[in-house]
Amino acid sequence: MIIFPAVDLQNGKAVRLKQGRAEESTIFNDDPVEAALHWQNQGAEWLHLIDLDGAFQGRSVNADLVARISKALDIPIELGGGVRDEKAARMWFDAGVTRLIIGTMALEKPKEYARLCALFPGRIGVSLDAVDGRLKTRGWVTDAGLTVDEVMPRLVDDGTAFIVYTDIARDGMQSGVNMPMLTHLAQTSPVPVVAAGGVATLDDIKALYPLSVEAHLQGAISGRAIYEGTLDLPEAMAWIRAQKA
Question: Where found in the cell (predicted)?
Answer without folding.
Answer: Cytoplasm
